[in-house]
Design goal:
heterotrimer; A: about 450 residues; alpha/beta; Aspartate Aminotransferase, domain 1; Aspartate Aminotransferase, domain 2; 2 domains; seven-stranded mixed beta sheet; three-stranded antiparallel beta sheet; C: about 130 residues; alpha+beta; OB fold (Dihydrolipoamide Acetyltransferase, E2P); six-stranded antiparallel beta sheet; 4 helices; 9 strands
Chain lengths: ~450, ~475, ~130
């Protein structure tokens, strides 16, 4: 008997008697017979637990990439995840619950959502955050749609240095909403070169750090924009050590929360964070937990400002989002609470330090250089004559970097991008240098 | 109700991290002065025992499927198999970077390919994308696909309307609106099904398509489903099926055979992956032949025993996800499909429909049943006319006192005081009996002791909360 | 349920008080009861020119949104500023302090089609 299906033949018999029908098939008499007749089974036999385990384990082991030392970034980063995160997430009261529609039996979820919103506001320097979006890319797209709803502008200024995957997802959403993307070039330092804001622009996007890993200078940008939205897409880890976009007047700060305690997961599930100003609250997408009191005056939490959402406002809603990335947001909450301000700064500075140490050594190698003069965080572009050959040599040394083609949409054809986190050891950095050193 | 910020003391930490090297510990001197953070972020400073106790305490204020019966209509809160959690944590899935070259992630690509093939077979549709991260994301993807199809045919400016039954999920109109379609509501008839005359009246050369939920949100199967899709196709539109209710006919009928052109599958509903307190889920989309050219790129393709990424789809809508979709959710769904096989899938829908009709039969004397049709996987009662001013909200809150999670309430909108009950196939008969007894007892209490309902719940960490205050005096984060 | 005799009504549960070409507009006692605790009111800016039935304002409770159409064509003169701080005035005094906005009407003939108190009462009683 399947372990998930508890009804025995005698259960089924007695239930059918209560209903007053002869067999289970009679309960499907409303599905037209021809429709049922067209059904074709998969030809799939039921698997016992051991067979399921073996099949999936076999698939997991077929991916050889896990044996490589990862210097991979491009939006997702290999940071250390403290054990405590996984243990808290394994509390099934968290992971087998759904959206906290009934607050009296959901104070656990609603309380950590409130904590998460607080922590995201602290990191980004903003006033209000929602309880998560699917991923950074769709959070960015939703931020642009919000800017369009607020300003009515139909042009979006997009840096040429924006991470290509973000741009691709944004392009789909923008096309769907009838918005036009316009490129903003970059300087020789790899930084944004804003040369004016055309009429009808709803938003300028700035990625911090950008697709090259370069840290942008946000000073004065909002002054050029006036009512046009300044949308910052930020990696949350460096926000521990650099001034957050909120300090520069950003209207929305979004980003990918995966680096905060979530595994790489072959790219999903991820965590989109989304923060804005209280002035924009009624146009913000996504769920929000708010503090209030119960009938006895006791403090508690509820989902609030729900009239923005699809289940109430339907076609007038600020977004269609319903299911979000709650469990990944819980991981981020526990991660940030476990590290604290000092721990998060340490992760950021360790990544910075190791990335800069590697970059300096590579720049000293004949034939290799670090592209762009701008300050970078923990990801940088190595410029060389034959990036494919260099990546191949690293691969043979057991090291994985992103394929050089990742940079082609950004206009870089003579390099590859390297990301370094606190997890990389001195030996691994040595191995990287040695792999490129020899002839 | 304490938050994590109420615990700890300056200098505490719950994890030991490596020392810094050249960059002096605790100082930001390495960061250029013009970029350096001036103060904050204010994060908790707690030791590990404090951290664990706080979140364990929070978890105990929650109710999950593992806690008890969770008959939340439209959400398919079935049991979440434990084996699947272990499989999703395998390093070969969880620790794999999605931008590795395909030759380095063959196992993960095989996982995606196999799941895709199964889902195509289950839905009877020839094309698929696994990218959408949730049901609503799948709906949006479907709307993008229909828009691109119209654009390709030169009909974009002309076909601007999406038809929706008045019983639809709120995500449907919201998704259509995000792509610029105008939503036209189609009334339901006395049977709770699409009013065919109204549909005929609404169809025309300005209609892009229809979004249907099958069975609908009343839990009723549209007997005229083939007629409906034929009518829409004849009028030049396409048919979107919201797959939230696939659990009702899994393994017995296929949306592709019913005339669906786009179908989203909530893996976190039908395929048993946990809901995570609101997410993540996954919302793969299958499509009919006509929409295959527009699917997101890349396609995961197989040649012999090798998997690769195929970008050759010039008419594609592009990406809706930066990588492949919610892969770890897909791991659990594939495990579930394998565990069930064909006969198990039929047993799932059989068990779900049996449980729903069983509860309906037990409860229909005590509660108003506005649409007394054969139910599929869920049914809708009404708390109207219970007397003494008792409302559906009170019934729901009183169920908490009896140890159950309340059903979905006040949805669908076409039923006043709706109570939408979806038991799922994974509940033993004994649980269904206890739940029915609780609702019958509550109906009696409503007559004899209505204050028990109005003041419920009684034993929860907090009682009814002032939601109006939460909006009038917003506190959406801690003030320091 | 309060249905003041001196006011005019629409089938969208709005009331209108006419003084010459100036009109005060609000939602009825029946409408505020249906919505429940009002927590937010969105009002049109002064100077906005509207046609009859254009949606110009919204009144929100925790779980519902009531869209308010212009009962008559004209120009918005003033929005009730008191509602931004105390939206619950719409609950407490829907026909008085809970007024939403005033307008200068441009098509006086439209006013003839508004319901009087008796007709509105009958409309509500019929389940409208």
């Amino acid at each position: 008997m399947n372990p998930y299906l508890p009804h025995t033949p005698s259960d089924i018999r007695s239930m059918l008697d209560t209903i007053g029908v002869s067999d289970v098939e009679a309960l499907f008499s409303d599905i037209p017979a021809e429709v049922q007749g067209w059904n074709r089974p998969l030809g799939l036999a039921p698997h016992d637990d051991l067979a399921v385990h073996q099949h999936l384990t076999g698939l997991a082991e077929r991916s050889t990439g896990r044996g490589l030392i990862p210097f991979l970034g491009g939006g997702l980063y290999d940071h250390f995840i403290p054990s405590v995160v996984g243990h808290i997430l394994s509390r099934s009261e968290f992971f087998t619950a759904y959206t906290p529609y009934q607050p009296e039996v959901s104070q656990g979820t609603l309380t950590w959502m409130f904590e998460y919103q607080t922590m995201i506001c602290e990191l980004t320097g903003m006033e209000v955050a929602n309880a998560s979006m699917y991923d950074g890319a769709t959070a960015l797209a939703e931020a642009v749609l919000m800017a369009h709803r607020t300003t009515r502008g139909k042009v979006v200024l997009v840096p040429s240095s924006l991470h290509p995957r973000l741009r691709e997802v944004l392009a789909t959403y923008a096309w769907g909403a009838g918005l036009a993307l316009r490129d903003v070039p970059y300087t020789e330092a790899g930084r944004l070169a804003l040369d004016g804001v055309p009429d009808g622009t709803c938003a300028l996007i700035v990625q911090q750090p950008n697709g090259f890993g370069i840290l942008e200078d946000l000073t004065g940008l909002k002054d050029c924009l006036r009512k046009t939205f300044l949308i910052a897409y930020a990696n949350p880890i460096p926000l521990a050590v650099i001034e957050p976009p909120g300090s520069f007047g950003a209207d929305v700060v979004v980003g990918e929360g995966q680096p905060l305690g979530n595994p790489l997961s072959f790219g999903g599930p991820l965590l989109g964070f989304f923060a804005t100003r209280m002035d924009h609250l009624r146009r913000m997408p996504g769920r929000v937990s708010g503090q209030t009191r119960d009938v006895d005056g006791k403090t508690g939490y509820v989902m609030t400002f729900q009239t923005r959402e699809q289940h109430i406002r339907r076609e007038g809603a600020t977004s269609n989002i319903c299911t979000n990335s709650a469990l990944c947001a819980l991981a981020a909450t526990v991660y940030l609470a476990a590290l604290g301000p000092d721990g998060l700064r340490r992760v950021a500075l360790l990544s910075w330090e190791k990335a800069h140490a590697l970059a300096e050594r590579l720049a000293d190698l004949p034939g290799y250089d670090v592209a762009f003069d701008g300050p970078f965080f923990h990801e940088f572009i190595v410029r060389c004559n034959d990036p494919e050959a260099a990546v191949g040599r690293l691969r043979r040394a057991g090291i994985a970097v992103l394929p050089p083609s990742f940079l082609h949409p950004l206009g870089v054809h003579d390099g590859f991008i390297v990301a370094v986190t606190e997890k990389r050891t001195p030996e691994e950095l040595d191995r990287f240098v040695v792999a490129l050193e020899g002839k | 109700m304490s938050t994590i910020y109420d615990h700890g003391a300056p200098g505490r930490q719950a994890v030991a991290l490596p020392q810094l090297g050249k960059v002096e510990q605790g100082l930001l001197g390495a960061i250029p002065a013009d970029l350096r953070r001036r103060d904050g972020p204010r994060l908790p400073e707690v030791s590990q025992p404090e951290l664990v106790r706080h979140y364990t305490a929070l978890s105990r204020m929650n109710y999950g499927v593992d806690t008890g019966f969770y008959p939340l209509g439209s959400c398919t809160m079935k049991h979440n198999p434990k084996l699947h959690e272990d499989l999703a944590r395998l390093p070969g899935f969880a620790d794999l970077h999605p931008l590795l070259p395909p030759e380095a992630c063959q196992g993960a690509l095989a996982l995606l390919w196999e799941t895709a093939e199964h889902l195509k077979g289950i839905t009877g549709m020839p094309g698929i994308t696994l990218q959408p991260a949730a049901g609503a994301h799948g709906e949006l993807t479907g709307m993008f696909l229909i828009k691109r199809w119209l654009e390709d045919r030169g009909e974009l400016g002309r076909r601007t309307k999406i038809l929706l039954p008045d019983s639809a999920h709120g995500t449907n109109p919201a998704s259509a609106a995000m792509v610029g379609f105008t939503v036209v509501s189609i009334p339901s008839d006395r049977r709770g099904m699409v009013n065919l005359d109204a549909l005929r009246g609404a169809l025309g050369s300005d209609v892009a398509g229809i979004m249907l939920t099958v069975p609908n949100t009343l839990g009723i199967f549209e007997e005229d489903i083939v007629t409906i899709t034929d009518l829409v196709h004849d009028a030049g539109g396409l048919c979107y099926f919201d797959g939230a209710n696939l659990n009702a006919y899994l393994g017995r009928a296929r949306p592709g055979d019913m005339g669906a052109d786009v179908f989203h599958i909530n893996l976190h509903k039908t395929f048993s992956t946990p809901h995570g307190g609101g997410g993540p889920g996954a919302g793969p989309v299958t499509v009919s032949e006509v929409l295959v050219p527009y699917l997101p790129v890349p396609e995961i393709a197989r040649k012999g025993e090798t998997y690769h990424l195929d970008w050759d789809r010039p008419k594609s809508i592009g990406r809706v996800h930066p990588y492949f979709g919610n892969v770890l959710v897909i791991v659990k769904a594939l495990a579930y499909i394998l565990s069930l096989g064909d006969e198990g899938m039929r047993a799932v829908s059989g068990g779900a429909v049996l449980a729903a009709n069983y509860l309906k039969a037990k409860l229909k004397g005590a509660y108003k049943l506005p649409y007394d049709q054969l139910a599929k996987h869920e049914f809708v009662l009404s708390g109207e006319g219970m007397g003494n001013g008792v409302r559906t909200l009170d019934v729901a809150k009183r169920l908490i006192d009896y140890g159950f999670h309340p059903p979905t309430i006040y949805f669908p909108l076409i039923v006043k005081e709706a109570l939408m009950i979806e038991p799922t196939e994974t509940e033993p008969r004994e649980t269904l009996d206890t739940f029915a007894e609780a609702l019958l007892s509550i109906a009696a209490e409503a007559r004899e002791h209505p204050e028990l309902l109005r003041e419920a719940p009684h034993e929860t960490p907090v009682r009814r909360l002032d939601e109006a205050r939460a909006v009038r005096e917003p506190r959406l984060k801690l003030d320091f | 349920m309060l249905i003041p005799k001196e006011l005019k009504y629409t089938k969208d549960h709005e009331w209108v008080r006419l003084e010459g070409d100036k009109a005060w507009v609000g939602i009825t006692d029946h409408a505020q009861k249906q919505l429940g605790d009002i927590v937010f009111v969105e009002l049109p800016p002064a100077g906005k020119v509207v046609q009859q039935r254009d949606l110009v304002a919204s009144v929100e409770s925790v779980k519902a949104v009531g869209e308010v159409g212009a009962p008559l064509s004209g120009e918005v003169l003033e929005a009730n500023a008191a509602l931004s701080g105390s939206p619950d005035l719409v609950n407490k005094d829907p026909h008085g302090q809970g007024w939403l906005f005033t307008m200068r009407i441009s098509t006086p003939t439209e006013a003839g089609a508004l319901l009087d108190a008796a007709a509105y009462e009958a409309f509500v009683a019929s389940g409208g």
